[in-house]
Amino acid sequence: MMNNLVSKEKIFLGELESMFTSAAVDGASGFINLMRIKNAYFQSIRDDLIKQINARAKPGTDFREELFDKLYTFFHRYFCESGSIYFRNLPAFAKTYERVYADGEDIALSWKTQQLYYVKSDQLICSMPVRLAASEYPNSPRFYFDAAELAHKQNNERREFVYTLSAVTHDAQGAIINLKVSHSKQGGRTKTDDITKRVRQEGVQLHQAQLQKACQVFAGQTEVDFFIHKNAKQFLREQFDLWFYQYMFRE
User: Fold this and answer.
1) DSSP states of 173-185 as a string?
2) Interacting residues of 122 by C-beta distance below 8 A, sequence separation 6+
3) 128-137: per-residue pLDDT in tens?
4) SS3 119
5) Do 220 and 81 touch, CB atoms closer than 8 A?
């Protein structure tokens, strides 16, 4: 039971931490400022969150195992990688997107992004230092993505990035993996195997999971759409009431 308990707790807290603090970044772009705000917010609530969970479900109990399972089951429907809250992952039978002939109205429609402000993510790409969260990627080297030669996108086209290793440098804090960023041409892709092999030849341990996560953080400047809910607390309370009712009376 303990292995299952640790697994479910690790999955929930890992997803939550990754969503808010997947990496520490530096720079001056709007995307970087947003990641800093998310990081600071999560650090301000994390200890209180764990304290409340421990008070209601002590480690080693069956209820704690169920609690983390239900927390993940509920929240994964509404949270996306940007931390935005909306109808993201719902079962096909959930009639969330349309309500036709509702009481008191001839037709009432709703949609996934209703009650949201959209923050356009298209922007100029900035060079970015990335430091992965130690709790999720222990002993990971740091990364620096050099986008100085990256051509500006045209017509809002989302083109795939290609990363090539330029150098492995060191400072007082450890190793830095320097990667040059360019746009893909004629279907070119990042050769992750070559990068990890060359880095290891320099005496630095690098796993593909670490490299892929760092690249994902950098690419988030253009690939992730951000939404701000007009009343996220009310929305989640309403959804929790519906979920709890279905959980209690589904039999």
Assistant:
1) TEEEEEEEEEE--
2) 153, 156, 222
3) 888 887 777 8
4) strand
5) yes
CA 75 – CA 66 distance, rounded (Å): 14
Single pTM value for the model:
0.52
Q: Beta strands 23-25 and 128-132: pairing type?
A: antiparallel
Alpha helices in 29-173 (DSSP H): 30-56, 62-75
Q: What is the mean pLDDT of residues 25-43?
A: 72
Contacts (Cβ under 8 Å, ≥6 apart) of 25: 32, 35, 36, 128, 129, 130, 131, 217
How far apart are alpha carbons 124 and 52 in whole angstroms?
41
H/E element holding 234? helix 232-249
pLDDT in tens, 113-158: 777 777 655 455 778 888 887 777 888 899 999 887 775 554 445 6
The dihedral formed by the CA atoms of 64, 93, 108 and 238, expressed in degrees to the nearest 10: 0
Check residue 91 and give its pLDDT.
59
Token reading at 226: 């951000």
In one letter, which amino acid is 114?
A: Q
What is residue 165's three-state secondary structure?
strand
Reduced to 3 states, what is the DSSP secondary structure of residue 55?
A: helix
